[in-house]
């Protein structure tokens, strides 16, 4: 075999070896913006909430605007779920919120029970926890703890499915509910059980303390 022929064979072998052995991986980051949630970020980037939480060592779903999250590396030879477009993610969030609210409204009229977390009786945080647990979101059974989940949003950013929080007496957050749109929210009232009330009502308006997004 001629010297030139040997060089050609060697070059071909090296190219083949590089092509087989090399794995292209791209590490990505995302910066949390107003209204984001772990679920929405996961949908946009073709991954899962649990993957993002594990990668960033998150112990809750609480996010801060401006927070930088690491996303999983994607190799060229790795099969992954394709990212969703902003339009599809928005539509998915609307559909998911609608399903949450439809489920939540089934319990209107259920009596209040301190510490309750079932259709036989709910307290406020037990009701919120029960509803969202049906959709794979595990919240703690305290209003103050739920306030530490998700992403903080302004009142004028509220959309159906967001959590709303109040201080109805004492210190800190002690009441939670689910925003359903049109300035209304559904919650387990200590005096009247699961019901719909308005944020415009003077009592709820003066005791309103904030809102979070978890969908």
UniProtKB/TrEMBL annotation:
One of the protein's GO biological processes: proteolysis
CDD domains (alphabetical): LysM (cd00118)
InterPro entries in the cross-refs: LysM, LysM_dom_sf, Murein_DD/LD_carboxypeptidase, NLP_P60_dom, Papain-like_cys_pep_sf
Record's keyword annotation contains Repeat: yes
Secretion signal, residue range per the UniProt entry: 1-27
Domain LysM: 28-71
Gene Ontology molecular function: any one: cysteine-type peptidase activity
Organism: Desulforamulus ferrireducens
Domain NlpC/P60, residue spans: 94-215
Protein name: Glycoside hydrolase
Keyword Signal recorded: yes
Family: Belongs to the peptidase C40 family.
């Amino acid at each position: 075999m001629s010297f030139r022929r040997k060089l050609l064979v060697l070059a071909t072998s090296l190219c083949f070896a590089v092509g087989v052995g090399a794995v292209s991986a791209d590490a990505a980051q995302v910066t949390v913006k107003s209204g984001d949630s772990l679920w929405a970020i996961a949908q946009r980037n073709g991954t899962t909430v649990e993957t993002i939480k594990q990668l960033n060592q998150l112990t809750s779903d609480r996010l801060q605007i401006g927070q930088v999250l690491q996303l999983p590396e994607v190799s060229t030879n790795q099969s992954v779920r394709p990212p969703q477009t902003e339009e599809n993610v928005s539509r998915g969030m609307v559909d998911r919120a609608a399903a949450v609210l439809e489920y939540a409204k089934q319990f209107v009229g259920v009596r209040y029970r301190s510490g309750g977390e079932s259709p036989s009786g709910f307290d406020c945080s037990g009701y919120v926890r029960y509803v969202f647990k049906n959709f794979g979101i595990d919240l703690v059974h305290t209003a103050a703890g739920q306030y530490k989940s998700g992403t903080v949003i302004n009142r004028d950013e509220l959309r159906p499915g967001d959590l709303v929080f109040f201080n109805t007496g004492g210190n800190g957050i002690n009441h939670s509910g689910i925003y359903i749109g049109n300035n209304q929210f559904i919650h387990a009232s200590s005096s009247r059980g699961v019901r719909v009330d308005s944020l415009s009502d003077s009592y709820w308006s003066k005791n309103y303390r904030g809102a979070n997004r978890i969908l």
